[in-house]
Each structure stands twice: as C-alpha cells, then as structure tokens.
Design brief:
Length: 123
C-alpha cells in the first residue's frame, strides 16, 4: 500500500529553493546592520543616562556631607573653646596653681607725680 499524492495535496512552492538577487541580499544586510546600530545606540544612551543620574545623585550626597562636616567642625571648635575655659578655671582653682601664684603686699607705696608733661630729659 503505497501512498499516492494527488496534485491538490502537493505544493510545488515548498520544495523550491528561494532565489534571492544580490540587491535583495544587500537590503537584508543593510537592515541587519541598521538594527544592530540602533540597538548599540540605544544601549549606549541608556548607559549614559544612568551615569549622569548617578553622578548627579552623588553630587547632592557629597554636598550634604560637606555641609554636615562644616557643622561638625564648628561644633568641635565650640567644644574646644569650652574645654579650654573649663581647664583654665580648674587650673586656677587648683591648689598647686594657687601655691605658685604668690601675692605680695606692699606697705609703703610712693607715687611719683610730675608737674610737667616732659617724659624724656634733654641733655
């Protein structure tokens, strides 16, 4: 039992090889190259936009950190000034410092008064 194909079940176009001309091949290769170029350009554009947005974000963060650093430096200066004041008060009230500071009392203090306004002597 062999199969018999009738003319209406057999398609001649399926068995034929499509022949393309050189100009058709050129158009297909140009389309392929154009598609690849467009894909590359889109990819690079997306990468560029990502880089620009990340740089802008980092710039804002850096600016905020610099502002915080300036505030911390000012706070540090204020704390150092308070610390110096407290150290000087503590040192002044300390007994060892009071022993080093000797007060001298004078009994006879003579004030020199001058009637003329000449300070230097003429020779």
């Amino acid at each position: 039992m062999s199969k018999v194909y009738t003319a209406k079940n057999f398609n001649f176009n399926k068995n034929r090889i499509k022949r393309r001309t050189v100009s058709q091949k050129m158009k297909e290769s140009e389309l392929l190259i154009g598609f690849v170029v467009v894909c590359v350009i889109l990819t690079l554009s997306m990468f560029y936009i990502y880089q620009i947005s990340s740089i802008a974000t980092n710039g804002y963060e850096i600016e905020e950190y610099e502002r915080k650093l300036d505030e911390l430096k000012k706070d540090n200066q204020k704390i150092n000034i308070k610390l110096a004041d407290l150290k000087s008060i503590i040192n002044f009230e300390n007994e060892n410092v009071n022993k080093d500071l000797i007060s001298i009392e004078y009994d006879n203090i003579n004030h020199i008064t001058s009637s003329s306004s000449v300070v230097a002597l003429e020779r």
